[in-house]
Each structure stands twice: as C-alpha cells, then as structure tokens.
Amino acid sequence: MSFFDLVSEKFFNPFCCRNRELYFECISQLIEKSKEIPVLYETDAKNVIILYLQNCMYSIETEDIGEVVSNGRTPQENAGAILRYFRDCGWIVAQEIGRNGDNIASVSAYCRKLIDAVHKIFDGDANGAITNHIFSIYEILKSSFGKDSARVIRPYLNILTPLIENECDLKNDLLILKDSIREIMRAVMKMADINSFGQYLIKDDLLERFFNDYFFIKRSGLIPSYIAEIDRMLHRLRRSELYEKMVKECISIENRDEISAREKINRQFDELDSFINLEYEQEMDYIDRKINTYYNLYSTKIMMTLSSNTDLEHELNRLLELLKDMDEEHRTEALMRLGQTQRIMHIGYVGRKSFERRRKRNPNQTSAGLTVDDISPEELQRLTDELLTETPDRYSPDNVEHHFDRIFGERKELTVEECGIHTRDDATMLAAGIIYSGTVGFPYEVEIGEGLVDTEAARISRLKIRRKDE
C-alpha cells in the first residue's frame, strides 16, 4: 500500500502554511511532552501549546486553518485552534476518551516519524554522529558472532540491513562535514575585519562539528582499530553460514530468485568493503587537506586584514627587487629616504589608560567583540517605527507644547505658582519646557528669576513662562 494511502490528504498541509514554523515547534513540544508522561491528554497538550505561545518570540500571521489563528486572539484560543487543526490533518490521533474522562491527544505514529526525521536531517547539533555510526557498525557485527545471538535468526534484516543503513548515514555525515568546510572557507573569504572573525569563531555552528566529530576521530587512537576490526568481521561474516541464511531470507522477503538475491547481497557486501577500506580513508584524507587549507587561508586573511588588505610580503619583495637593480649611489639615497619616511595614521590622547598593564582576557566568555549589524535599512526602519509607536517619548517637544497650551489657556504669561506643580510628572514637564525654550519652533520662553519656590512636588527656581510673539 502506498504511503499516501495511509495518511490523511491534509497530512503535509501544516508545512505549507504561513505559520509552518510555529506548527512545527508546537508539534515538537507535544512529542517531547509525551515522552515524560504515560498518556498525553488534550488538557495537557493545550497547556503545553499555551505556554509555548506565551513565551515564544514568533509573530503569528493571520491565517484561516478552518478557524482563524492570529496575534489578535489569546494564546488559549490559538492553542485550541492549533490542536483541532492537528487532529484534522492526522498529526494527532482521533478523539478518544481516556480513563480520566478527558480526550486523548497523542501524536500519531506517522507524525512522530516525520518530525524525528526532520530533526535528524536538519538539526545542527549532530555531535558525535560520525563516531556513533562507526560504533554501531562495530557492535552489530560483534553481536552477530556472539553466542545465542538473536540477530542470527533473521540475519538479512537484523545484520545486513542495519549495516547498510549505518554506512549510508556515515557517508551522509562525512558529506555534511565536507560541506561545512566549504562553507567556512567561503565565509572566511568574505570577512573584512577582525571582529567578524572573532564572532564567527565563537558562535558558528559549523565549527562545532569539527571539535565534536573530526578532532575526536583524529585524537582518539581507537577509531583506526575499530575500522580494522570491522573489516575483519565483514570478511568473516561473508564466509560464514550466516551468508546462506541471508540469501534464503532475501528470497522469501523480496520474492527474488536465488541468483538475483545473491547478486544483491554480494553488491551490498562489496559496497561495505569498499567504503571501509577505501572511501572512508579517502574522505578523511580529503577533510585533512581541506582543514589545513582552511587554517592557512584563515591565517593569511588575518594578516591581510591587519595590514588593511595589503600583502606586505609581496610589497617587500617588490621593494627588494627594485633596490637590487639600482646602482650603489641611487640605492644609498633610496635607503636613506626610506629610513626618514614616517606617516602618522592616527592621533589620539595619551593618558594613563594608554600604558597601564592590561588584564588577561577571559577566553571562556560566551560572546566577544562588537555586534555586526546586518539588518537591512527597511527592517531597521520598521523596528524603529514599532519601538517609537509602542514606547512614545512622553516629554517630546510636541507633548510639552500641548501641556503648556492646556495650562495657559488664553493667558500670555504664567509663574511657577500658577503652573500647578502637583506631581513629579508636572515638574518633569516644566523642566522639559525650560530645555526646549531656547529651541526654534517651541512657542514658549522661560525667564529665570531669583529665589526658590516650594511646590507640592519639588523646590523650583522662581520662573516666568511667556508665550512667544507669533
């Protein structure tokens, strides 16, 4: 039966919606919650989604998924709508009342497999994946020769098939590691300042794969011995009686004749043998060369960045070649002029901070360097407008002018006593008016007299505020 016949026709719809990231995170939260409790009831599932919606930074776009989901609705309303949508798409099992009288909201098996596969493929945190596959291949082969091993009952499905799967996963992880090196080299070539290098080394996820996979493999002397033992056990498995059992099992499971079954199994063994003895070593050698190239490129780029993108070695070579071709008189004059050359690139204040002994920098800080602003001008303007709209300046010139218009009425002049300074806010408005009184466009001016005036909010200098002539 086709996979698409087993699931709802709406099964993949949440991945095509505007809020697909939100739905993916919600179902992931439900899967994690279901690992902590025996049965996931609808109340628990709704509470999990409500908590996520209250704490997440995701801006929900308005969309109709059978009912409207938007930022204008409460987290409780959105959580209920999302749960009903998941059940309609087949991500959550059909309604079934549990022992406590509440509906069960367990995530369906096909949805679990789909989400786990997505996490496995795209999650950057794959620490130790390469070595884990090597260990798995080793343990499968070792358990196959163990006394009373259950794997020998069905050797094709329990030995050969998982060996091939782990080998394919190992290939994929090596390819990801190679792609990571290429991405790092491209990123290094684009960097133009030292701060960018520091930020990249600290926060880039690709480098994590080097320190958690590559360097572990290179520094651990056990990995080559595991590879050699895997090769030995593969040859032993191919010559054992389990080989004939694999052929018979393949014939019965895949409805093949004996010749095609043997051909398929032989191709799989040949692929395993080729990868362990040839491809794995080639891939690791390639990664070694690229990492050496990466560090050499990084070092050269650092030196060029420090020298304002000038290749000093090339310039010095040119200078020496010129001096070599000069006669003695001109060479002496050129060296004298070079010795007298001095160019001041920067002038700054020399104070105690310039020569005091610096403290040693902590290398274990979570972040270092200045933040590189890579926000586009349009996005920056949008964020600025949102900030000014949400938190307007209470004491802006326009607000202070409206405040004075209200208390002046038709009068032309007021004293401090007549302004009615009852609260701290009134005193701050008056102080803002004093500041703005000397600016062009502000319609009021302030005359400061002698003495102080006690008001309900503060003691203030004796002032007179006049409306400017239009």
Describe the overall structure:
By secondary structure, the chain is mainly alpha-helical. Helices cover 62% and strands 6% of the residues. It has 19 helices and five strands. The protein has helices at 3-6, 20-34, 42-55, 75-89, 109-122, 129-144, 155-190, 194-203, 206-219, 222-239, 242-254, 258-306, 312-325, 328-340, 352-355, 377-390, 397-408, 416-419, 424-436; strands at 63-64, 68-69, 413-415, 444-454, 459-467. The strands form two sheets. The protein has a three-stranded antiparallel β-sheet. Strand 4 and strand 5 form a beta hairpin.
Give the mean pLDDT: 76
Distance between the termini: 87 Å
Strand content of the residues, in percent?
5-15%
Strand elements, count: 5
- What is the tally of helical segments? 19
Fold blueprint:
Elements: H1 3-6, H2 20-34, H3 42-55, E1 63-64, E2 68-69, H4 75-89, H5 109-122, H6 129-144, H7 155-190, H8 194-203, H9 206-219, H10 222-239, H11 242-254, H12 258-306, H13 312-325, H14 328-340, H15 352-355, H16 377-390, H17 397-408, E3 413-415, H18 416-419, H19 424-436, E4 444-454, E5 459-467
Antiparallel strand pairs: 1-2, 3-5, 4-5
Helix pairs in contact: 2-3, 3-4, 6-7, 6-10, 7-9, 7-11, 7-12, 10-12, 11-12, 17-19
